[in-house]
Each structure stands twice: as structure tokens, then as C-alpha cells.
Design brief:
heterotrimer, A mainly alpha (328), B alpha+beta (388), C alpha+beta (183), A: 328 residues, mainly alpha, 0% strand, C: 183 residues, alpha+beta, Alpha-Beta Plaits, two-stranded antiparallel ribbon, 4 helices, 7 strands, binds iron/sulfur cluster
């Protein structure tokens, strides 16, 4: 009995609690990030951004969320209704699982698994399926084009992403996020960004592309495809896509900070603050990019990937492997 | 519920016609960009036949904002037609003002006092900067960069404040009158214009840093939509589109009007003919406009701002006249036939955007959709001007 | 080699772009926050037209009812109502007419004045601001400068009739109010 309790029920409770906590974290962060994004955009463009709802416009995202929830859900004629509504859900749900194995603090891990990195990569790949379904089921030409772009983009950019993550896995010798964090606990210069700067760069670029953030926001390029794959979504359908986009930003920033920026390691403050700070720093950089650059073209996007990122990350991987072997 | 049959799912005349001429053997997709589309700036509609992301064929459909400006000219007196001119091309309204006023002045032999000429030059060039700035912002917006347009608007608001001082309005100016302008410029206007010129000079490098040099933008503009000189001539393209192919044709120099031949300025050209060349020409023109404004302010004579011997009632003699000015988008021409009454018999407006737009169909063929958008943006189209 | 150099230059240009936006990020706002702040150049704004009163009587317009504004308005938005009073009630007023000759073929054919006396009295001056193009032709063509632009920029309404004004009435109402300011 106690054994059942210990090996079955306890982990289950643990997982359920962790999932709930992570979902709250995502929802809360979604709201905060929408606000931050609009404020950043505002300040870069020398305007205040949201300002009217609540002090300094703090309640604006809540108002927006309410609006989205209250809106009528409309589906275009000829759309495949099951796929059409499955797509936003599908794009959102894997996020929760992606955040599970990430150590947010010394004792703050949803689910400490040995193959954490693999888990994240596998589930984050699901997003593209959602975009594809959304584009396909909408019965809209713009959506279809957006979906086609999303698929090509994700497929291409998963490779350099994997390769750069693999470098870290090589140096640490583990696919467990906790081990990766532990290996970076010897001061600033043990952080992987200094050990593997090229891998970090590649990871970051690929992450931008994976999350469809500017300058790689081709699937939703509004000046070409009006809104790309989510052209036909209104209300919460759109809201979920929106939330998913911000959640994926959190996921890649979290993964990025664990893999390259030392995770929760840092002096003075307790670990989870450091982790949060690093996640937000990466997200801020992403926003900064978005409000600075024009969008790249589709073929250029693939060119960057195939001609630069993949060879570079391959070379980096080989170099890493070589050095590791030599050192051993 | 609406009955399905009440919708015409095959589209209208244009789309069905366009679909009939489907070229590709395999699967092609006919996409209707506009009339409401984020990057058609207003209400241009473009039909494209896509093969994947490649544009097989493109065809602009016009007329969504046709307001019968030419016909209106026939039913209004000469004076009453003035406010229409601010609305043909709302971005460079003063150039249109000028083209019309100039045509009537030429027909009636009205002398414009020198001060008025200089005032016209200053305000028209300010307006040109305004128009180019908006184009710059909107073009980068088409390419996905959102921030630059707001920096451009900062400067643009500045110009509009200055122009508001003398014209009273911010966009659809109706400022020029037969024989001069409607109000004199003040010393405050001059001081603010000088301040603006200095300030804007310092801002231009920032524009270049943020956008012109940007690797992503260059990738989106270089070798895109290459227009040869021969092609530009074939379509009658003018303005920066023509100068982007290497021909230094500028009405201000080719058919000098007003006091432009007393002012020293260059005509920026670029040989390449691609979108980047047009971009470069426009940005260089910003600086030239600043030069013109500076010199005009220096040479500004005293005197009346409107000619005293303009008749109370404008009734030009029988005859016809053509007057052209250089607008931000190219050669603006007004052709006017008078039958000796107080209303024009016929008035024809040559909108530069109309000729420039037609280059698009040929340029877009075989490009990627994103490039087609870039080309469309680089032509600097103002749809109300095209439709008139 | 050149491709690598080009790429490096390109990457540098990206950093330069970030620098520009980063710098702007730290600068203060440029926008004017409307309900709390206002732009400072409303005095040069030209709103709808308004009648100008006589300097000695704020309730009476300078207008001599020549109807030129009505005639020249390209958008047909001015409508003037007037009557010709009995001989004994003719308003006595020194005329500041620049050119009092009615134009040929114009609606204002009837004689305007007789000696020092105006032959017409203004009953109503209706402006349909919905159609006004703010061209300023009426203001410019008024021979006695009886028209001017108001600076009313914050006009808002829910129906067309909100923008149909009787300028004469406005003038008379204003005359009995303390000095009016729009901002
Ligand atoms: S400003 Fe122009 S449109 Fe408006 S009332 Fe006067 S003449 Fe008519
Ligand atoms: S033009 Fe002047 S004087 Fe003549 S009717 Fe109009 S407001 Fe009165």
C-alpha cells in the first residue's frame, strides 16, 4: 500500500500539481508578456503604449482577454469544423508539457526526467502540426499559404536547433536539464554561452524561427498574408494561438537560459528569480528584434538555415566532439 | 441564415475573367489581394495567380476610389475646382494644387509675384518630404518593419505643424490660388522651417542606420523588380521610378517652372533599376528638398504674396493648356480646355501613379509573393491619385 | 571571402539597427496624450467658418448679404436667408465694401445698397459643415471680411444635424456669453 502510494500516487499528484502550476504560470505570463510587448513597442516607438485601463494600463491585457473570451466564435463556410477547433487547442496544450522538465529553481522542477531535453524538443514540434491544421482547415487561401510556410520553416529550423542543443548535450554528457544546470554552477564563465557561443547564437536564431517571431514571422506575415494561418480565427480561437505564441516564447527562453545562461545559477538572489530574470531577458531581446527588423523573405529564410546555420552548427558539433574526445 | 445561393462564390467579373485566362498547366491558386489588404495602401485590388508562392500573373484592378475628379472639373467653376486638387493625391496635395493653378495661370497669362513663387517652392518641397517620409515608413511596414513608420511620422508631424501655420490644414491642402497663395508666410514659419531643416538633416543618418543599411531590408530590395530604362519609357513611368533606372528626368529641370532654375539642386539617379534604386533615389531626394528649401528661404524676396491683378471672376480665354510639375511620385500634368466660359470644358489630370502602377503587372511575373508586395510598395502608389 | 565579409557587415548592420531602437527606447514619449495634454498649435487650425461681428456691436455680423460666399462655395454648404425690409427700416451702416458690384450672372444680382443704407438684412446663415472642404474660398472672397475660421477642433457628433449650424444664431449667442475659448 505504501509502495503504491510512494511510486504511483505521489508522482501523479506531483505531476498534476506541477501541471496546474505551470498552466497558471503560462496564463499569468501570457498576460504579462502581452503588456510588456506592447509597452516595449510603445517605448521604442516613443509612445506610451497601453495607458488607459488601470494604472499605467496594467489591466489592459485583462480587458483584452475578456474581450477575446466574450467574442463570438465564427467559422468560415466550408471549413472542417473538427480540425478548425482542434488546431488552437493543439497548439496550446503541448506548451504545458514542454515546461514540465525545466528546473525553475533548485527544487522547482515539474518533472525531473532524464530525457528532459528530448521531451521538450519532441513536444515543441507539435506546434507546427497545429499551424498546419489551422491553415488547412480554414478554407482560406491566405491561411493555406501561411500553413505551408509554417511547415517548411519549422522543418528547416528544427535541424540547427537540435544540432546546437546537441552540442550542450555533448559537453555535459546528459539530456537532463538538472545536470546541465549543475554543470554551469561554477561561476559566470562556466555558463555555456561562453563555452559554446556559436551554439547559443544558432539556438537563438533557430528559436526565433521556431516560435515564428519577427524577423521570421512568415506564417503570419500580415503585410503579405493578412494574418497567415490564423486569418479566420476570432475570439478565443485567436486568443489561444496568441497565448501559444507567447508560451512558446517562454519555453524557448526557458530552455535557452537553462542550456546556455546557467539556469537558476546566480549569486545573491534565490534561484527562481535568476531563472525568471534570464527568461525575461531573452524574451525582451526577442521583442527588441521584432520592433527593429523588417521581415526576411521566405527563400532567404531557408537559405539562412540551409546555407549558414546547418553547416555552422554541424561544424560546431564536430569541433565539440573532437575537443571532448581529445580532452578525455 | 443566409441562403448559400445568394453568394456569388465565383467572384465578380474581374476574378472570373482572370480565372479564365489561367496560364499554368498544373495547380495554380488565384488569390485576390485587396481591395482591403494591409499592403495595398488603400483600395487597390490585385489579382494574382500563384504557383506555390510564385506569382505567375498579376493584374491590378482599379476604380475602387474613383471620385470623378475630372468630371467634377466640368461642372465647377475654375475657382471652385481648387479644393478638389488637394484630394487627388492627398500625400502631395500641394503639387497638384500647383499643377492646376499653374495651368490656369498659363492660360490666362497671370503673372505670379516672386515672393509667391518662392513660397510655393518652399511649401511644395516641404510637402514632398512629407510624402516621401510616409512612403518610406509604409514601405518598410510592407516589408514587416513596424517601427520606422513611427519615426517617420515624428518628422512628418513636424512638417504638418509648419504647413498648418500657413495653410490651416494638415493633409488636404488648398493653399495655392491663381496668382499666388492664399496667405503669406510668417517669420515664425520661416524660423520653424529653418529649425526643421537642421533637425531633419541630423535625423537622416538615423534613418540610414535603422533601415537603409539593414541587411534584411537590402535582401528584400536588391535585385527585386528590376525596371529597365526601355521598360520605364514604354509604360510612361516618371518620378523616382524613372530616375531609379538611371535617367535624370525631373520636370523641375526638364521643363523648369516657377523659380526652380534659380535654385541649385541635383537630380538623384540610380542605375540599378531595382527596388533598392528607387529607395535610394527617394531618400536622396529628401536631402535635395532640404537644399531647395534652404536656398529658397535665403532668396525669399519681399513683396505681395498674391498678384493684385487677378480678375474677380476667372474666365480664361478660349484655348487649351498643359502644365506639368514634379510631384513626389512623378510628373503631374493638368491638361485643360477652355471654351471661354467660367467652367473648364474638359480637364484631364495626368496622375503619375497610374503609369507607375502598370509596370507592376510585368514586374511581378515570376517573382515570389513577398517580392511582389515589395515591388508594389517600391512604386509608391497612392490609390486615390490613380483612380482620381 | 567576400561573402563572409559581406555577411559580417550585414550582421553589424543588424546591431546598428538595434542600437538605434535601443536609443529611442530610452528617450521620452513624443505623443501628445490627448485628454491630459493638448497640442499647442490649435491657434493655426482652421475649423469651420464663423461670422465676424461688427466691432461696435458683437451681436451683429459685418455681413452685407452679398451672397458671394454662398455662390463660390464649391461644396454648396452655405445657405443664406435674407429679406429686403421696408424703406423705413433699412439698416443704417457705413459700408466698408471693397467692391460692392454684384457679379454678373450671380445669385446676388439685386442691388446691395443704396447710399449708406444696406438694402438687405441677414435672417439666417446656415452652414452645412458635413460637406465643407475647408478650402477657405468663402473667407477669402467675403468683401467685408465677415467670415473667419473658428478654431474648433474638438467637434464630434452622432448625426448629421449636429454639424449643421446657424452661424447667425451662434454669433448672437456668443455675444452674450463671456469670452469663449475652445481649449
Ligand atoms: S471653406 Fe470652402 S467649402 Fe467650406 S464653406 Fe467656405 S467655401 Fe464652402
Ligand atoms: S461674402 Fe461675406 S458679406 Fe457676402 S454674404 Fe457672405 S458673409 Fe456676407
Amino acid at each position: 500500500m505504501t509502495q503504491i502510494l510512494q511510486y504511483l500516487v505521489m508522482p501523479l499528484v506531483h505531476i498534476v500539481v506541477a501541471l496546474a502550476a505551470i498552466l497558471t504560470f503560462i496564463a499569468l505570463n501570457g498576460l504579462i508578456l502581452v503588456y510588456v510587448e506592447r509597452k516595449v513597442a510603445g517605448f521604442i516607438q516613443r509612445r506610451p503604449g497601453p495607458y488607459e485601463v488601470g494604472p499605467q494600463g496594467l489591466l489592459q491585457p485583462l480587458a483584452d482577454a475578456l474581450k477575446l473570451m466574450a467574442k463570438q466564435l465564427v467559422m468560415p463556410r466550408g471549413a472542417d469544423s473538427i480540425l478548425f477547433w482542434a488546431a488552437p487547442l493543439l497548439s496550446f496544450t503541448p506548451v504545458a508539457i514542454c515546461l514540465m522538465p525545466i528546473p525553475f529553481g533548485p527544487n522547482l522542477t515539474g518533472w525531473n526526467v532524464n530525457l528532459g531535453i528530448l521531451l521538450v524538443l519532441a513536444f515543441s514540434g507539435l506546434n507546427v502540426l497545429a499551424l498546419c491544421l489551422a491553415g488547412w482547415s480554414s478554407n482560406n487561401k491566405y491561411s493555406l499559404l501561411g500553413a505551408a510556410r509554417a511547415v517548411a520553416q519549422s522543418v528547416a529550423y528544427e535541424i540547427p536547433l537540435l544540432l546546437s542543443v546537441l552540442c550542450i548535450a555533448f559537453t555535459t554528457g546528459s539530456l537532463n536539464f538538472a545536470d546541465v544546470t549543475a554543470s554551469q554552477s561554477h561561476g559566470l564563465f562556466s555558463w555555456n554561452i561562453f563555452v559554446q557561443p556559436l551554439a547559443f547564437l544558432i539556438f537563438f536564431i533557430a528559436a526565433l524561427a521556431e516560435t515564428n517571431r519577427a524577423p521570421f514571422d512568415l506564417p503570419e506575415a500580415e503585410s503579405e498574408l493578412t494574418a497567415g494561418f490564423h486569418t479566420e480565427y476570432s475570439g478565443m480561437g485567436f486568443g489561444l494561438f496568441f497565448l501559444a505564441e507567447y508560451s512558446y516564447m517562454i519555453v524557448v527562453s526557458a530552455v535557452g537560459s537553462v542550456l546556455f545562461l546557467g539556469g537558476w545559477n546566480g549569486p545573491f538572489l534565490s534561484g527562481h528569480w535568476w531563472m525568471l530574470g534570464k527568461i525575461y531577458a531573452l524574451i525582451l531581446v526577442m521583442m527588441w528584434f521584432r520592433w527593429t527588423y523588417p521581415r526576411v523573405r521566405f527563400d532567404q529564410l531557408l537559405n539562412i538555415c540551409w546555407k549558414w546555420l546547418i553547416p555552422l552548427s554541424l561544424m560546431n558539433l564536430l569541433g565539440t566532439a573532437l575537443i571532448i574526445n581529445l580532452v578525455r | 441564415m443566409q441562403d448559400k445561393s445568394s453568394f456569388n462564390l465565383d467572384g465578380d467579373y474581374y476574378s472570373s475573367k482572370f480565372a479564365e485566362q489561367r496560364k499554368g498547366e498544373g495547380d495554380t491558386l488565384i488569390l485576390n489581394l485587396g481591395p482591403q489588404h494591409p499592403s495595398t495602401h488603400g483600395v487597390l485590388r490585385v489579382m494574382v495567380e500563384l504557383d506555390g508562392e510564385y506569382v505567375r500573373r498579376a493584374e491590378p484592378v482599379l476604380g475602387y476610389i474613383h471620385r470623378m475628379h475630372e468630371k467634377m472639373g466640368e461642372v465647377k467653376t475654375y475657382v471652385q475646382y481648387l479644393p478638389n486638387m488637394g484630394r487627388v493625391d492627398y500625400l502631395h496635395a500641394l503639387a497638384w494644387n500647383w499643377a492646376y493653378v499653374g495651368a490656369v495661370e498659363r492660360l490666362m497669362g497671370i503673372e505670379v509675384p516672386p515672393r509667391a513663387e518662392y513660397i510655393r517652392v518652399i511649401t511644395c518641397e516641404l510637402n514632398r518630404i512629407c510624402s516621401h517620409l510616409l512612403w518610406w515608413g509604409a514601405y518598410v511596414l510592407d516589408l514587416g518593419g513596424f517601427t520606422p513608420i513611427l519615426y517617420a511620422f515624428d518628422d512628418r508631424e513636424n512638417i504638418m505643424d509648419i504647413l498648418q501655420m500657413v495653410t490651416g490644414s494638415r493633409l488636404t491642402y488648398c493653399y495655392y490660388r491663381f496668382g499666388g497663395v492664399s496667405s503669406d508666410i510668417t517669420s515664425e514659419f520661416i524660423a520653424q522651417t529653418r529649425a526643421f531643416v537642421d533637425r531633419f538633416r541630423k535625423r537622416i543618418p538615423m534613418y540610414h542606420d535603422l533601415v537603409t543599411g539593414n541587411m534584411i531590408l537590402r535582401g528584400r530590395c536588391e535585385d527585386i523588380g528590376v525596371i529597365s530604362l526601355e521598360m520605364a519609357k514604354r509604360y510612361g513611368a516618371t518620378g523616382p521610378v524613372l530616375r531609379g533606372t538611371g535617367l535624370p528626368y525631373d520636370v523641375r529641370r526638364a521643363e523648369p517652372y516657377s523659380v526652380y532654375n534659380q535654385i541649385d539642386f541635383d537630380i538623384p539617379v540610380s542605375e540599378a533599376g531595382d527596388a533598392m534604386a528607387r529607395y535610394d533615389v527617394r531618400l536622396a531626394e529628401l536631402e535635395q528638398s532640404l537644399r531647395i528649401i534652404e536656398q529658397a528661404l535665403q532668396q525669399l524676396p519681399d513683396g505681395p504674396y498674391i498678384s493684385a491683378d487677378v480678375p474677380e471672376r476667372i474666365v480664361p480665354p478660349k484655348g487649351e493648356v498643359y502644365f506639368a510639375v514634379e510631384g513626389a511620385r512623378g510628373k503631374i500634368g493638368v491638361y485643360l480646355i477652355s471654351d471661354g466660359s467660367d467652367k473648364p470644358y474638359r480637364i484631364k489630370l495626368r496622375a503619375p501613379g497610374y503609369s507607375n502602377l502598370h509596370v507592376f503587372a510585368e514586374l511581378a511575373q515570376g517573382t515570389i509573393l513577398a517580392d511582389a508586395i515589395s515591388i508594389l510598395g517600391s512604386l509608391d502608389l497612392v490609390i486615390p491619385e490613380i483612380d482620381r | 571571402m567576400t561573402t563572409i565579409r559581406k555577411t559580417l557587415n550585414g550582421l553589424w548592420s543588424l546591431i546598428v539597427g538595434l542600437k538605434v531602437t535601443g536609443k529611442e527606447f530610452c528617450k521620452p514619449w513624443l505623443t501628445v496624450h490627448y485628454p491630459r495634454q493638448e497640442v499647442n498649435n490649435l491657434n493655426t487650425y482652421r475649423g469651420h467658418i464663423e461670422l465676424v461681428s461688427l466691432s461696435d456691436d458683437p451681436g451683429k455680423p459685418k455681413c452685407v448679404v452679398c451672397r458671394r460666399c454662398e455662390e463660390i462655395c464649391p461644396s454648396d454648404c452655405i445657405r443664406i436667408e435674407m429679406h429686403t425690409p421696408e424703406e423705413s427700416h433699412l439698416p443704417d451702416r457705413p459700408l466698408m465694401l471693397i467692391s460692392g458690384v454684384p457679379l454678373a450672372g450671380s445669385v446676388a444680382k439685386d442691388p446691395l445698397c443704396e447710399g449708406d443704407k444696406l438694402l438687405r438684412v441677414l435672417d439666417g446663415f446656415y452652414l452645412n459643415y458635413n460637406m465643407c472642404s475647408l478650402c477657405g474660398l468663402c473667407v477669402q472672397n467675403c468683401p467685408v471680411s465677415s467670415l473667419t475660421f473658428s478654431q474648433e477642433v474638438y467637434l464630434a457628433g452622432q448625426k448629421r444635424s449636429d454639424f449643421e449650424f446657424d452661424l447667425l444664431q451662434r454669433l448672437q449667442e456668443d455675444a452674450y456669453k463671456p469670452i469663449k475659448s475652445y481649449h
